[in-house]
Amino acid sequence: xxxxxxxxxxxxxxxxxxxxxxxxxxxxxxNAEALRLTxxxxxxxxxxxxxxxxxxxxxxxxxxxxxxxxxYDCDADxxxxxxxxxxxxxxxxxxxxxxxxxxxx
Length: 105
Known about the structure:
By secondary structure, the protein is mainly beta. About 10% of the residues lie in helices and about 35% in strands. Strands 2-1-6-5 form a 4-stranded mixed sheet, with helices on one face. A hairpin with a 4-residue loop joins β3 and β4. The chain is globular and about 35 Å long.
């Protein structure tokens, strides 16, 4: 496997996508430990920059994301985590964190 490229803080962005529809659900940060836990447990783990701790998505809310596949981009500096996410992915209760639009023109 290609060596993943983490940033200066030891983090890599992880885009989370519903595996069967392609819907983009959220973006969060992973460190090497979060990636290892994700691979071992089959559920998503992330690094909270604000709390400075690991968190398992859905452990509190029940909206667990089951990992189907993890891909990385051509520069090996971003992950795409394909999941089955039956519930909301956003902390606001919405299905996706990407519910707002930037106005243009």
